[in-house]
Amino acid sequence: MLFQVGGQGTRPTFFEMSAAQQLPASLRAALTYSIGVLALRRPFLHKVLDHEDEFFSLLMLVLETHSLRITDASFAESLYGLRRRTVKIRVKKEDARPNSGDGIQQSGLEKHQRILSVVFLVALPYLKSKLHSIYNKEREARLQASLWGNGDETVEDAEYVSGGESSLVSREATIRSRLMKKIQKIMFVCYPWLHASSEGMSFAYQLLYLLDATGFYSLGLHALGIHVCRATGQELMDTSSRISKIRSNERERLHGPPWLKALQRALLSCTYTMLDYAQTGLIAAVFFFKMMEWWYQSAEERMSAPTVYPPPPPPPAPKVAKEGIPLPPDRTICPLCSQKRANPSIVTISGFVFCYACIFKYVSQYNRCPVTLMPANVDQIRRLFHDM
């Protein structure tokens, strides 16, 4: 079997594919932050945050469907100039000519591949997010039950006491709640294994892609039989003509009286304008989010940073007492013996240096500094190993 990629575009690098995969997460963070800021003044926007997964999935459904329809690429891939191509593998026969073109050949996406691409790009991430939230809720519930105990069972048992129709309703509700709890427990056990398997497969495919061992960046692309490649200049020009052709056909299919056609054309024009500027607007939102995140983070660091004060000035030097021993002009001479200092030692209370034997004898006898006459004891004598 001969593996060779067709000439419709070069293979993107690992970093290009990683950036395209991470762009939806950055976009979601930017939108969540922007809506959260707006919700401070308009509380009704908190309902959007309460259904964040549904709102973002609906937005990505519109963007991904539109992008795959006109560019044969996902929303993030189209920003990086990438295109999706169907891979068809043909087995080269031994008696075939060498230039027969057998191997891996690429063509445009088919309709079912676009639909399945939307499923992998929108539906599976939404399902994964919901499973993750269910797992977190069950984990928190188990943690609270381990700390405070679970009092739900006593409440459920008490519902059977009431009689008549209310008893039947309460039993149905109790059975339903117990069934949901069992499902949540099963998800709590299975989700870590599913998550680990999914992340492990993603890591394996990315590692193989990085080592040029496979042309598929993810398991989803491999399952769909799709390669991602860079778009050529001719393909970019064909995309523009393709978009104009699709839109002209949609305008021609309008039916109804003239005023209804005019209204439909106006709605289509507004929709086309919003979709055309959606990429620019969303990328600007991501950039604005990153800038605001950096701005507030640097402001918080400046506010939380400790205030650095200059070091305090040293205390003034002690004055020589009138009745004290005068200091010699040479700083290396001991004031007590008037000889060059031997084994220099300092009196910490005043800071003057003497010979160790001289100062130890003087302080032991008079309990004071011989120069300043400040009270001192032998515990305040320190040896100096570097005489200035």
UniProtKB/TrEMBL annotation:
It is a multi-pass membrane protein. Pfam families: Pex2_Pex12 (PF04757). GO terms for biological process: protein import into peroxisome matrix; protein monoubiquitination. It comes from the Eukaryota. GO terms for molecular function: ubiquitin-protein transferase activity; zinc ion binding. InterPro entries: PEX12, Pex_N, Znf_RING/FYVE/PHD. Pathway: Protein modification; protein ubiquitination. GO terms for cellular component: peroxisomal importomer complex; peroxisomal membrane. It is found in: Peroxisome membrane. Residues 21-298 form the Pex N-terminal domain. Keywords: Membrane, Metal-binding, Peroxisome, Protein transport, Transmembrane, Transmembrane helix, Transport, Ubl conjugation pathway, Zinc, Zinc-finger. Component of a retrotranslocation channel required for peroxisome organization by mediating export of the PEX5 receptor from peroxisomes to the cytosol, thereby promoting PEX5 recycling. The retrotranslocation channel is composed of PEX2, PEX10 and PEX12; each subunit contributing transmembrane segments that coassemble into an open channel that specifically allows the passage of PEX5 through the peroxisomal membrane. PEX12 also regulates PEX5 recycling by activating the E3 ubiquitin-protein ligase activity of PEX10. Belongs to the pex2/pex10/pex12 family. This is Peroxisome biogenesis protein 12. It comes from Salix brachista. The lineage of its organism: Eukaryota, Viridiplantae, Streptophyta, Embryophyta, Tracheophyta.
